[in-house]
Design goal:
Length: 604
């Protein structure tokens, strides 16, 4: 069974038909690109993903990383593929030329990352996670000397990058960190402390690794207000760009994980020999503000990890269902021949459930990329502000929802495979393990829900949320103008109105005496908001498909477009009612979880 990583036709539909990204290519920033150029890049990315990256999936999982005497070695099969990606500049497709990137539109860079992540997230993680984010914050907040010294080495992936945030006693509570920084006479800082769960903290594929480190300068305020950020290179960099002595930052161990076994998750110590030198990035006590420029991109990548895993496992499941012969078709005589399991009603339901999420999450991702683009490119301040506010509002939803639903799709793909899906004969069980981390790192789903309810819902006194709802209502209005979609539009409109009612109540409670109860319902609320986005994306797809059907497309396209309409119908008529029921539970605002005594949870 040949492995497909995503439905290429669906990707083209989203990019060119749903979001009409050719219009973005009219902006001066992207004049070097046209539709043909973009498709050539995506076609080549798809080939590399299948031919080069995918073969490392199982071997990297079985081999894992090794750690000995402070040295971390990645699976050997990763190294030649990583070099191919690095030499082809695949790590900087979407970065601006002034940073050493190729300057491609966000939708192209995002689709490339989806292809590569679907092939082997653990391996591609070394290319995409860290280096670009580290380069970005140095470009935004660094001195000219720091930019010159680090940025292009990072974006070329000659050097790796990380994010040293989490500590043994300071996970989600970043303000409790204990890493300290003492200013030296020459303006540098001496750092002392320990960090854990550091992705790519140490490995053998880059000659140097640049660590952005959160630490507290002696005498700085407590909590997050007193956190600064420092550039801590593994090797010092001389004025001529050559590497100097080793800095006093070391890997002390690697985690043995449930999944992404080929990804180095490291424990790091600084100042063990009293000689860890760091360079202040930006201003003192501005560490969290700077780091969030990196965190938001990391959260987008994490949501995309869930999306790409859903895409890959759905492709595996639907193709397996077409090939696996088992049991006669329902309604046929007992002596009738067995048929492919795609003919069985529950399998078809499961596949369409998976398809609705895989398609909806891809549209959600490209919607977010589109908002990013408009927030920077539009010549109208109002449009830029609207796009930015919606992007900020939906970032925690995208991260949490796509991480969780992506994992759920992987689990259901295993169900389609049945017993063999639980074995290592097929890759679905690895996708299940690899995808689970997406709901945990870069801020757990609970943290994302708290961010949504406590910060994003109240942005501009709730105007961001209202703008989001207005955009949905425009789609509903369009659907109401299409006879075949009026019923779906009416059903969906009831969901949107219910979401608005629930949003008003839970937001008010979050700011009142019942705030703990509100936060106990924050993740279910985020999930319902995610369901609402899925229904929106799928209805939007159905509108585009209906219009394209009127142009008398080829038979193959007719089947594809009809599939878009049926997918929207399935989700709105089967998943949305369940989400409506969950909103009833949120509306009720039960405080049982808050009021129950600790001892009543049992298990002492």
């Amino acid at each position: 069974m040949a492995q497909q990583l995503m439905d290429k036709r669906d990707l083209e539909f989203v990019i060119w038909e749903q979001f009409k990204n050719e219009e973005l290519l009219n902006f001066e920033k992207y004049r070097a690109f046209n539709k043909k150029t973009c498709n050539l890049i995506l076609n080549e990315a798809g080939k590399i993903a299948v031919r080069e990256i995918l073969p490392t999936l199982r071997e990297g999982d079985e081999t894992g990383v090794s750690f000995e005497d402070g040295v971390v070695k990645v699976p050997e099969c990763y190294i030649p593929v990583f070099n191919i990606l690095r030499e082809g500049d695949w790590g900087n497709v979407g970065l601006p030329p002034e940073m050493g990137g190729q300057g491609a539109p966000g939708f192209v860079a995002g689709a490339v990352t989806e292809y590569f992540s679907a092939a082997n997230f653990s391996m591609v993680n070394y290319l995409t996670m860290g280096s670009n984010g580290t380069a970005l914050i140095i470009q935004l907040f660094g001195t000219e000397e720091q930019k010159k010294k680090y940025v292009k080495k990072l974006t070329s992936v000659e050097w790796g990058g990380t994010m040293l945030l989490t500590e043994p006693n300071a996970g989600s509570d970043v303000g409790a960190l204990e890493t300290t920084a003492v200013k030296n006479a020459d303006g540098t800082y001496s750092l002392t402390g320990n960090k854990i769960f550091i992705t790519n903290g140490e490995h053998d594929m880059c000659e140097n690794i640049i660590h952005p480190v959160l630490a507290r300068i002696e005498g700085a305020p407590e909590g997050t207000r007193g956190i600064s950020i420092f550039i801590v290179p593994k090797y010092f960099v001389n004025d001529d760009g050559s590497l100097g002595e080793r800095n006093d930052i070391w890997c002390t161990g690697v985690e043995h994980k449930h999944g992404i076994c080929g990804s180095a998750t490291c424990s790091m110590t600084m100042g063990a020999k009293g000689k860890c030198t760091g360079y202040l990035l930006g201003e003192e006590n501005q560490g969290m503000k700077i780091m969030f420029n990196m965190m938001n991109e990391a959260r987008m990548l994490t949501g995309l990890q869930g999306t790409s895993a859903a895409s890959a496992t759905y492709a595996l499941a639907v193709n397996y269902a077409r090939e696996r012969i088992q049991t006669r078709e329902l309604g046929q005589p007992h002596n009738a021949p067995s048929v492919a399991i795609i003919n069985h009603p529950d399998v078809r339901r499961n596949l369409l459930w998976m398809k609705s999420y895989a398609n909806g999450m891809r549209s959600f991702f490209h919607y977010m990329k589109y908002q990013q683009e408009i927030s920077e490119l539009s010549d109208k301040e109002e449009e830029r502000s609207l796009a930015r506010s919606i992007f900020d509002l939906l970032t925690p939803v995208f991260k949490s929802y796509c991480a969780n639903r992506g994992y759920d799709v992987c689990v259901q793909a295993m169900q389609v495979f049945g017993g063999v899906g639980y074995t290592r004969d097929y890759p679905v069980e690895q996708y299940v393990r690899d995808c689970k981390i997406a709901s945990i790192y870069e801020g757990t789903c609970g943290i994302q829900a708290m961010d949504l309810l406590g910060r994003k819902m109240t942005t501009q006194n709730g105007k961001a949320f209202l703008r989001f709802i207005d955009a949905i209502r425009q789609t509903i209005s369009e659907a109401n103008g299409i006879e075949a979609l009026q019923d779906l539009a009416g059903r969906y409109e009831k969901m949107v109105e219910k979401l608005c009612e629930v949003a008003k109540k839970i937001t008010a409670n979050a700011m009142g005496k019942q705030f703990k109860t509100a936060y106990a319902h924050s993740l279910p609320y985020l999930d319902c908001m995610g369901d609402c986005v899925m229904a929106w994306m799928l209805l939007w797809r159905a509108i585009v498909a209906d219009r394209q059907l009127k142009d008398n497309p080829k038979k193959k396209d007719t089947i594809f477009y009809n599939g878009q309409i049926k997918t929207a119908e399935f989700f709105i008529r089967t998943v949305v009612p369940t989400s409506m029921g969950r909103m009833e539970g949120i509306w009720d605002q039960s405080s049982a979880a808050i009021e129950m005594e600790d001892e009543a949870f049992g298990c002492n």
